[in-house]
Every structure is written in structure tokens, then in C-alpha cells.
Automatic annotation (TrEMBL):
Entry annotated with the keyword Metal-binding: no
InterPro entries, per database record: Epimerase_deHydtase, NAD(P)-bd_dom_sf
Species classification: Eukaryota, Viridiplantae, Streptophyta, Embryophyta, Tracheophyta
Domain of life: Eukaryota
GO MF entries: UDP-glucuronate 4-epimerase activity
Subcellular location: Golgi apparatus, Golgi stack membrane
Catalytic activity: UDP-alpha-D-glucuronate = UDP-alpha-D-galacturonate
Enzyme Commission code(s) on record: 5.1.3.6
Top-level EC class: isomerase
Record-given protein name: UDP-glucuronate 4-epimerase
Cellular component terms per the entry's GO annotation: Golgi cisterna membrane
Amino acid sequence: MTQLKPILSHLDPIIPSSTGKFKSSPYAVHRLRFHPRLTFWSFLFLFFLLLFFFCSPPAASNAGKRRSLQNTAYSARARPGPNWEVKARNSARPQSKSGVTVLVTGAAGFVGTHVAMALKNRGDGVVGLDNFNNYYETGLKKARKSLLERRGVYIIEGDINDAALLGKLFEIVHFTHVMHLAAQAGVRYAMQNPNSYIHSNVNGFVSLLEACKNANPQPSIVWASSSSVYGLNSKVPFSEKDRTDQPASLYAATKKAGEEIAHTYNHIYGLSITGLRFFTVYGPWGRPDMAYYFFTKDILRGKEIKIFEGADHATVARDFTYIDDVVKGCLAALDTAKKSTGSGGKKKGAAQLRIYNLGNTSPVPVGKLVSILEKLLKIKAKKKFLPMPRNGDVLFTHANISLARKELGYKPTTDLEMGLKKFVKWYLSYYGAKKKSAW
Ligand SMILES: NC(=O)c1ccc[n+]([C@@H]2O[C@H](COP(=O)([O-])OP(=O)(O)OC[C@H]3O[C@@H](n4cnc5c(N)ncnc54)[C@H](O)[C@@H]3O)[C@@H](O)[C@H]2O)c1
Ligand SMILES: *[C@@H]1O[C@H](CO)[C@@H](O)[C@H](O)[C@H]1NC(C)=O
């Protein structure tokens, strides 16, 4: 209807109507019938009216699309660049005979970059997809992108909610696997922008699963859930069978929703889906919103760091897991994934549905994290201890990884000291080099 309005208002002064000038004129009827100019305008009006009816379905749906884009979060504006189809096809070509073809969503992110690199290094075909949203410094995402580009991995700039883009992508590349790492990560940011979690972790996940279900052949999917689904669960260590119905944050709730949505798509469409519950992943090219990262930044600047404590000064602890160990777990999950059974959007038989913890099995108190950083940076931190605000963070995490060890051969080998050493080395060279190039 919005389309009709400008036309009507444009013709308004000329259309004879029951109100206004024409009615008051005794010649109105006469003029309407015989005035050549008015006859011309009437035909023109009829023409536009018919035109409107012929065009109305697409016009209406366009308007609908525009509205839904406005309603989605800040990041839906991402668009692929010129020649993206050609670049995607080239990037998707495996280098080794046994190589698979993997779509990595969130490829400009921390874990995505490492996984994409590892896949490429062993000869797989890899295409990345990322919307480069500004949740944290986009410069870091761009730098990761160039890193991958130098190795021949192309990242499409686009949103997982863009169904048309995904449809086209699955049409031109036959992905055997999808490594789905795109998400709104972080726990605290939900208090500022709750919608971004729904946009990427719920709507976006469904949009991606729709594309996978429609693809021919259907790919096998491995995706990142989170240790946060254990929420207020106090039984340690966290095992896959433990309850996950008490999320302590919106982030956790969207990851839990993802696990249930995965169940549905597996059940109805025969998609093979594996969920990985990551436990505090850290390392080079890491995420600036995570404590180990901004503690390093603040210690170097001589800024005070806030260390949160539970009730009665209970220490907060995390099962920190080094990125290389997580990457091995991701690749093992891809390699052991069975094929999806559906085709053309229809299920042919039961398909695989798995969930694994990927942790390190050794929780480290945050105080210990800080003392390792102090040693590596050779700077004493200015510490301030504060009671933990109720913003979604949990007191501790601790993974039971015996299932992943048994079925994926997953065996983390890097302890926090060794991992942080590698992180700090990277941090100093990355920001050091940036400072130099800025001069
Ligand atoms: N790093 C951890 O400790 C940890 C722990 C548990 C779970 N996870 C999960 O692992 C995955 C990877 O995390 P990360 O640490 O690499 O985070 P990250 O923020 O560095 O990477 C996520 C990437 O996804 C992209 N993205 C977000 N929404 C998108 C959308 N709608 N369309 C396209 N791209 C989008 C972002 O731009 C970003 O580059 C996420 O699903 C995260 O929730 C991470
Ligand atoms: C760890 O998980 C396995 C199942 O994968 C279970 O058999 C075992 O009892 C758990 N261990 C602990 C200490 O909870």
C-alpha cells in the first residue's frame, strides 16, 4: 500500500472527487466526460492502478525485506565484494587429494582464523564468511583476514542471516563440511546489546541450518556451543550429560537454544551436527574482550586491573584452553563427522548428533593468570579486588573431557604458562609492529 500513496498524492489535485472544487461546479460532470485533458488523466490513473496491482506482490515483499533488515542488528549491512563468486570457488578447491571443502563462518574471528588456517595447511579447500562487525576492534579482524588471504583463504564479507547470499554460495560450492564459528561472543555485552545475541546465535544459526538443509549434497556441520551452557551447574567436572537448563547469561541461553535447534534440524532434515562446548579459549590473535587479553593491555599501560571474587573472597577460576588444542579438537570433530542423510530438504534416515566438551581439565584461578602475566611482562600489576557483579559470569568452569578423548582422540597438551608465553609474544609483536608502522 505504501507504493500506492505517492502515486495517489501525485494525482490528487487532478482526480475528480466527491469533495472539493469539482463538486461545487455545475459543469463537473460535463467536464469529466468530455474534457480531453481530464480523459487523458483518468486513463493515466487507471493505467497506474493496474500497474500497481500487477506489481504489488514483489513490491510488498520488498518492503517487507527492507523492514526486516532495519529490525536486525547493527551488522546486517555487510556485503560481499566484486567477483566474490570466482574468489570463493578458487578458495574452495582442495590442494590435496583427500582434501574436503569447508565453509568456515566467523573466519575473521579468533578461533575461525586458526581453524581456517589449519584446514588450509593440510590441503583442504576453505571459504570463510564473516560480517566484520565492530563488537571489538575491526582492525584485528582485518589483520586476521590478510593473514588468511596470504595463504590463499578467501573470506566473504557477509552475514549468516543473508539467506540469498548463503543460497548462492551453496549453489556454486559443494561444501562437504561447515565449521560454524560465527556468533556474538562474550557474556557482559548482552546487557548493552541483547539483540545482537539473538541476531547471530539464534536467527543466524537457523538461517545457516536452512541453507545447509537445502544444499545438495547436505554438508556435515560442526559448530561452537559453549561451556557457559552449564550455567549454575555446581557438579564438577562438567560432563556432557549434566544439566544445562540453568543458563546464567543471555549468551549461555542462546548457545543452549542452539543445541536444541541443532537437535531439531538433525531430527527433521537428517543433518549431521556436532556441537563443541569450548572452555575459555585463549592464544595469539585472541579476543580483546577476554580477561587475559585486556589484563595484558592494562598491565603494559600501568592501568589498574579489576579482579573479581565470589562471596567470602572465593576465587574465580577458568579452565583455560589453548587455541592449538581447540583447533585439533575441531579438526577431529570434522574428520569423524558422518555424512548428513537428507537431500533436497528431505530426511532419508537417522543422522549423527553429537556434543563434546573441549576444555583443558585444569581450572586456574584468575590470580594465578595475573601472576603468570606479571612474570612474562616483567611488570607488577596494579590489582583491585572486587566482588563479582551479577552480569552473567560464573565462578568457575572445569571440563570433563573423557568423551572427546575417547571419540575424537582429543588430548590438550598446552598448560596456561606455556600458552600465555606464546600469547604475550604475539601481543608484543602485533601491537609493537602496529605502533612502528603508525610512525
Ligand atoms: N573464545 C572462547 O573462549 C569461546 C568459548 C566458548 C565458545 N566460543 C564460541 O566459539 C566461536 C568463536 O569464538 P571466537 O572466540 O573466535 O569469537 P570472535 O568474536 O573472535 O569470532 C566470531 C566471528 O563471527 C563473526 N560474526 C558474528 N556474527 C556474525 C554474523 N551474524 N554473520 C557473520 N559473521 C558473524 C564476528 O565478526 C567474528 O569475527 C563462537 O561461536 C563463540 O561463541 C568461544
Ligand atoms: C566424565 O564423563 C564420563 C562420560 O563421558 C563419565 O563416565 C565419568 O564418570 C565422568 N567423570 C567424572 C569425574 O565426572
